[in-house]
Design a protein that fits this description.
Two copies of one chain form a homodimer. With 125 residues, the first copy, chain A, is mainly alpha-helical. Chain A has a single domain, classed as Multidrug-efflux Transporter Regulator, Chain: A, Domain 2. The first copy, chain A, has six helices and no strands. In chain A, helix 1 crosses helix 3. Chain A is elongated, with a radius of gyration of 19 Å. The relative contact order of chain A is 0.10. Chain B binds a DNA duplex (30 and 30 nucleotides) through helix 2.
DNA sequence: TTAACCCCTGACCTATACGTCAAAGGCAAG
DNA sequence: CTTGCCTTTGACGTATAGGTCAGGGGTTAA
């Protein structure tokens, strides 16, 4: 499987796959004689995991910090709800991310209310 | 008043003042014979208004779209609460910004809950 | 063999609000 | 006159997740 097919199978683009590789989320795949990247189903599964975690708001840097654990999540789905020990490190990262999200939400809410007060709107609909 | 003093008086840096000028929020001030920018109290007041609106979450692009109205807000303070007609355009921009903030808050809250569910935390403490 | 499509690397682009650095000149005090 | 701080312009950096060329080469089917 070359990069275009692998990317399509994972629901993304060749550019993204090269980006994940360069970012340390994917190990460099083997190359064809001509130097073209070759992927298999496990690679595609891993990319799907990466994209799901990214879509949940984790950053590439977050995933890089636990890239070695990431393959533990590979398979048909992520472990249901707290399979003990299996992805402790990602869990910690997710928790920190949640805390950061809470902070950001609070900050934006304060901004919103400040602006609303400034123009004399009701605060919160 | 040269740029350093004006910036200090407005609670910011020379770099920021040049940036506001370049961004179209401040009209180019007169220059000394040697080419140095000269500011007065009204300039400082305007910069304070700019900084207050930026701190409320408006962007430089927002302010540029109503830069001509911005001087209507200059003085000791922003008009209290909906002085009619005085800053209609900024008001509209502020309202759009509030809507954008609401969207963003909702988006982040959804992410937060998705992540929390993923690791089996209680949703919302 | 040639069209048509795929892949390679490297470099620049996006938005935000400035910070930092560099080279060169201005200004006031000693 | 010199020291030292201030100012000028322009260029590059910051963080995110890739997008978009550009120039070159691989692959495949007719």
């Amino acid at each position: 499987m070359r990069i275009g097919d692998a990317a399509a199978a994972a629901g993304t683009t060749p550019r993204a796959l090269r980006f994940y590789e360069q970012s340390g989320l994917l190990s460099p795949p083997r190359r064809s004689v001509a130097g073209q990247r070759e992927y298999d189903r496990r690679d595609v599964a891993r990319v799907r995991v990466i994209r799901e975690l990214l879509s949940l708001g984790l950053t590439v840097a977050d995933l890089r910090h636990c890239a070695d654990r990431l393959d533990l999540l590979e398979g048909d789905a992520l472990p249901p709800y707290g399979e003990p020990g299996v992805c402790a490190k990602p869990d910690g990262i997710a928790r920190r991310r949640i805390a950061a999200l809470d902070e950001e939400i609070t900050r934006l809410a304060r901004l919103r209310d400040g602006l609303a007060a400034r123009i004399g709107n009701d605060v919160r609909e």
